[in-house]
Amino acid sequence: xxxxxxxxxxxxxxxxxxxxxxxxxxxxxxxxxxxxxxxxxxxxxxxxxxxxxxxxxxxxxxxxxxxxxxxxxxxxxxxxxxxxxxxxxxxxxxxxxxxxxxxxxxxxxxxxxxxxxxxxxxxxxxxxxxxxxxxxxxxxxxxxxxxxxxxxxxxxxxxxxxxxxxxxxxxxxxxxxxxxxxxxxxxxxxxxxxxxxxxxxxxxxxxxxxxxxxxxxxxxxxxxxxxxxxxxxxxxxxxxxxxxxxxxxxxxxxxxxxxxxxxxxxxxxxxxxxxxxxxxxxxxxxxxxxxxxxxxxxxxxxxxxxxxxxxxxxxxxxxxxxxxxxxxxxxxxxxxxxxxxxxxxxxxxxxxxxxxx
Length: 357
Fold this sequence. Notes:
The protein has helices at residues 2-18, 22-26, 28-67, 71-98, 121-141, 170-174, 261-287, 327-331, 336-353, and strands at 110-116, 144-152, 158-166, 179-185, 196-206, 220-225, 241-246, 251-255, 304-309, 314-317, 322-324. The protein is α+β, with helices and mostly antiparallel strands. A hairpin with a 4-residue loop joins strand 10 and strand 11.
């Protein structure tokens, strides 16, 4: 680990020099790229330098203990040595976490797609509840949400709704939301007071950058249409909504949020690029299926990841076995306890599996 940390520090110093190079500064794309790497290495280097400080404290204390017969000096040196050992152990643990392979998508914006599953209108209503929950969480975390597409039902739910969340680290906070979300509650339409179980599927895609995936425009079929809300609400009199079909895969993207056809097309192409990049990633993951995978973060949308039980006021994440008895607060966007627990479990799994070798 020490050798790896030395190499990282050398790289960090080299990047520091690069950032003051006029040629790098004048090239905006290169400057952004170098700055991102510098920023990602900073926590590791700072912690490594802190570690070395404690190493020096321990060495100084041990040197005093080796030569001094003064009882008071020895007591102080023993206290310093003990403190340095504890700090070194804590620093070493933190460095192991910092050296874990970083998800290259963590800093990216995300595209979230929510679809009602089993349960009809109740599933559509819960899809709307999840949309509201994610919007409230994004607002509290300082992210920005932009609606892309919404297929609204008569009762105000959504058969499907997609939106972007923009801001530094958005993917790192939302990526564990991919999967099937199950809700257990008494629907407003239920006269007998029976509890119904419905499901909603959430897909979280990192927003593709130019270098991630190149779209072949010849493989796309782009059409325009008028957008309309449930029951003819919010009808757009012009054909500003855009539908794009990727012919080889049959992937369809619809965008109708903007009044401008051009803006809708731009958004729809961005979503298509992200979906196809995600599809490519899944193919690669599938090809490497024989390799060990973490129990969390596979993004498998076919697996049930969480249950929201309204009669008991609890939410349970099945991947880590965590139950929170604060469902109302959770549905109001207070997701940090759950998200932090998922990140911690993911890191622990990677550490156990030796991903930082």
